[in-house]
Amino acid sequence: MGFKLISLLLLFLPLLIVTILSGAEQAFASDKTLLVTGRNSTADGGRSSLRGKKQRRASGCNLFQGRWVFDASYPFYDSSTCPFIDGEFDCLKFGRPDKQFLKYSWQPESCTIPRFNGGEFLRKYRGKRVMFVGDSLSLNMWESLACMIHASVPNAKTTFLKRTPLSTLTFQEYGVTLHLYRTPYIVDISKERVGRVLNLGAVEGGADAWKNMDVLVFNSWHWWTHKGQSQGWDYIRDGSSLVRDMNRLDAFYKGLSTWARWVDQNVDTTKTRVFFQGISPTHYEGREWNEPRKSCSGQMQPLGGSSYPSGQPPSAGVVSKVLNSMKKPVTLLDITTLSQLRKDAHPSSYGGDGGTDCSHWCLPGLPDTWNQLLYAALTM
Fold it and tell me: Which residues are known to be catalytic?
């Protein structure tokens, strides 16, 4: 009996050893995975884990890939009750007869954007400061956000100070301040013996005002294309060289790279969220959307689908190239394609100055979607 028992043990012992070793290997593999997960969640102050979550969310939902759909619940506010809109954006005030352009919402392909809630924004950012830095398209976005918040708390006490280059709007009860710093090129324009000089290597002119913000939203490009009387400079300083002109995309790249170095060296992105607004398109050339004889004038509805016939402008590629080279995290509000689809959303002849404006945007209108996407990026 003892001999049979020993024989049985010898028969099953190899199988038992393999089972034990297999279980141990699985346990070790499981522990290794947990260690990796734990390391990612604690190293770098937890930011590695956050980046991973953002990447997974981005792969499941691109907020900027989608289409425009009719939405009867829009707009977010009535322009006649918002005290912060400049006349150049107040299309209804200056006689725009159609209102369908107000009734479109942006629908990403694979998720839903949270609807903007001004009261929630004020509570979440109590005591915080948000600054838009850039040209008149930053003004467009700043006034849009001001109106969206005001519509939620119409009786809130505010302090509104509009100056050049720095304007401020404070919702007093909440201590939330929206700043606008006007600087069309972001880099400096200085007065020298030869005249106005666009210095591609300097941002000292406004940089001190940009520090210690909770949210920074930068924007530039619109003025880089201007020539003749509308050009904002006489010469360009590129390092030690002083030139009358150069390729505008090259100049934009060098200027934006100077801004990128400033952000990398001066902004603590654990305390400040940094965004780049993206390239806002124009609609002067109908050939871009296969209507060669037309512009934004008389347009009453968006383009269908999710792509623009002529593709993204080269300036958008410059922005991507610069952002990808940065050490600090900067979020691109990739508004270009969704804005290209809105040939109907410009002031055109209803901006109050007698011209045709296919560069800026009516309020209410498209910039409200930009701010809704900013809100989604901050809260999702």
Answer: 136, 357, 360
**3 state SS for the chain:** CHHHHHHHHHHHHHHHHHHHHHHHHHHHHHHHHHHHHHHHHHHHHHHHHHHHHHHHHHHHCCCCCEEEEECCCCCCCCHHHCCCCCHHHCCCCCCCCCCHHHCEEEEECCCCCCCCCHHHHHHHCCCCEEEEEECHHHHHHHHHHHHHHHHHCCCCCEEEECCCCEEEEEECCCCEEEEEEECCCCCEEEEECCEEEEECCCCHHHHHHHCCCCEEEECCCHHHHCCHHHCCCCEEEECCEEECCCCHHHHHHHHHHHHHHHHHHHCCCCCCEEEECCCCCCCCCHHHHCCCCCCCCCCCCCCCCCCCCCCCCHHHHHHHHHHHCCCCCCEECCCHHHHHCCCCCCCECCCCCCCCECCCCCCCCHHHHHHHHHHHHHHC
By CB neighbour count within 10 A (0-12 exposed, 13-18 middle, 19+ buried), where does 206 fall? middle
Q: How far is Cα of residue 267 from the mean position of the Cα atoms in its chain?
A: 17
Burial label for 294, CB within 10 Å (0-12, 13-18, 19+), is: middle
Beta bridge partners of 217: 132, 275
pLDDT in tens, the chain (380 residues): 444 444 443 444 444 433 433 443 333 333 322 222 222 333 333 333 333 333 333 446 899 999 999 999 999 999 999 999 999 999 999 999 999 999 999 999 988 898 999 999 999 999 999 999 999 999 999 999 999 999 999 999 999 999 999 999 999 999 999 999 999 999 999 999 999 999 999 999 889 999 999 999 999 999 999 999 999 999 999 999 999 999 999 999 999 999 999 999 999 999 999 999 999 999 999 999 999 999 999 999 999 999 999 999 999 999 999 999 999 999 999 999 999 999 999 999 999 888 999 999 999 999 999 999 999 999 87
Q: How far is CA 157 from CA 43, 84, 148, in A?
A: 43, 14, 15
Cα separation of 365 and 295, whole Å?
A: 18
